[in-house]
Design goal:
Elements (H helix, E strand, L loop, with lengths): L13 E4 L15 E4 L3 H22 L3 E6 L5 E4 L1 H7 L3 H4 L23 H12 L1 E9 L5 E12 L6 E10 L1 H64 L5 H32 L5 E4 H13 L11 E5 L5 E4 L1 H18 L6 E10 L7 E8 L31 H11 L4 E6 L3 E9 L2
Parallel strand pairs: 9-11
Antiparallel strand pairs: 1-2, 3-4, 3-7, 5-6, 6-7, 8-10, 11-12, 12-14, 13-14
Helix pairs in contact: 5-6, 6-9, 7-8, 8-9
Length: 437
């Protein structure tokens, strides 16, 4: 059958029904039906019956949840099939029971006393606020327990606003409760492990402080004695000392001095790990210029002006960091660039920065110092930033191999990275990154 024709505007004697199956006129599925307006009472009745039928199907078909109803006194007036299925109690047993029947058990074993007024308070809250929620353990008819979330909703007549009682929705949240308890146990275990690890770190720091103190005092004393006795030997032997003996004395003195420098570097590295990081805005251009001035006035690095060319970026960013520590990074990188390019004429030092962002990673500033010095084998670059690691002979270039290790520690404490690229007899580029913003 074809649907009845509809004009753009329906007559006032018609209205559109969204429930065509309830109308008396023929229809096809999915079509809107025109229902005469002179039968509104029948339509409203059918609509109400359909709604009540849907609600009944809902209350009876729920799984892992139950809906039942209470009268104004808080006694059960309607016990649905979903409530019987969830809790195991039959309707004759529950009708007329007070809501206090569902006062939560305070512990899974049921050993703790129940607070009989808890559900009465929930009833009062729903009467005042419209709804209340009470979680807790509930006992089924077979004695088993479930963790339920009980929601009480006050019902009122739409026209008169008279109180009609309460609707109670009880949801089985046992699995959620189990997962929540498991998460809390894991968090507690994690906190215990963190506390234990913190104590271990504190013990390690105390041991490190004791070691630093021992290095600072106990190990320096033998070095001072070696230096003193070497000087006494020089005086006793006088100027007539054989060249071979003089070389041996020089070797002893240089070894003692080198050992003293290694102890100083070790202490600096240990202190750096314990020093607090005082972050504030740092103007890198000013910080770099101060480091350049120090390098130019260092007797060990000083070179004639015509043998040295600087190429410094005109604009460097402002970053968040500890200016005192970051200045040590510039000092060490500039000192290395000048030291390892001493045989290049002229020595070329390039300094710059760029803003980078890789995909979803936060942006970062990358700084670099490039020289045209002796360079190094890039396959051994991973050794550069370790303690006392050197890629060149001490007879060629002085140092103890602590500067780049300090740089790595400082940059990592700022949340950045440091790396290097090089080619033998071409030069080296040292990069370090710092978070932008």
């Amino acid at each position: 059958m074809s649907p009845p024709p509809l004009d753009d505007k329906l007559p006032e004697s018609f209205f559109i029904s969204l429930l065509p199956e309830q109308a008396d006129v023929p229809f096809a599925p999915g079509w809107l039906q025109a229902v005469p307006v002179h039968r509104p009472e029948a339509y409203v009745l059918r609509h109400r019956q359909a709604t009540e039928g849907h609600l009944r199907l809902l209350t009876e078909g729920l799984r892992d949840a139950a809906i039942f109803f209470l009268d104004n006194r808080g006694c059960i007036s309607e016990w649905s099939a979903s409530a019987e299925r969830l809790l195991g109690y039959a309707a004759p047993e529950m009708l007329g029971q007070c809501i206090t029947r569902f006062t939560p058990v305070m512990s899974p074993d049921g050993g703790a006393e129940q607070l009989d007024d808890q559900m009465l308070l929930a009833l009062e809250r729903s009467a005042l606020l419209g709804q209340s929620e009470t979680p807790g353990w509930q006992r089924r008819a077979d004695g088993s327990l479930l963790w339920a979330n009980t929601v009480l909703t006050a019902l009122h007549d739409a026209d008169t606003e008279d109180a009609l009682g309460y609707a109670c929705l009880m949801r089985d949240m046992t699995e959620n409760k189990r997962l929540l308890d498991l998460l809390q146990e894991l968090n507690a275990a994690l906190e215990t492990r963190v506390e234990e690890r913190t104590r271990q770190l504190q013990d390690m720091n105390r041991d490190l402080e004791a070691f630093s103190s021992s290095v600072s005092h106990d190990l320096r004393a033998p070095l001072r004695h070696i230096g003193s006795f070497v000087q006494l030997l020089r005086e006793d032997l006088g100027t007539a000392t054989a060249p071979s003996v003089q070389r041996q004395l020089d070797t002893i003195a240089q070894a003692a001095d080198h050992m003293g420098q290694m102890i100083d570097g070790l202490l600096d590295f240990a202190r750096l790990g314990r020093a607090p990081l005082r972050k504030r805005p740092v103007v890198m251009a000013d910080l770099l210029q101060s480091s350049i001035n120090r390098a130019l006035h260092d007797p060990a690095l000083r070179r004639p002006e015509h043998e040295l060319q600087w190429n410094v970026a005109t604009e460097l960013p402002v970053v968040q960091g500890d200016g005192l520590l970051l200045s040590q990074v510039w000092d060490n990188l500039l000192a290395n660039a000048l030291k390892y390019s001493r045989h290049s004429l002229p020595a070329l030092i390039h300094i710059g920065a760029r803003l980078e962002q890789d995909g979803p990673e936060p942006p970062r500033w990358v700084f670099w110092v490039r020289d045209n010095g002796v360079g190094f084998n890039p396959q051994r670059a991973d050794r550069l930033f370790g303690m006392f690691q050197r890629l060149h002979r001490a007879s060629d270039f002085e140092g103890v191999g602590i500067g780049l290790a300090l740089c790595r520690r400082i940059i990592e404490r700022h949340g950045g990275q440091i790396w290097a690229d090089s080619a033998p007899k071409v030069g080296s580029t040292f990069y370090f990154s710092l978070p932008a913003g």
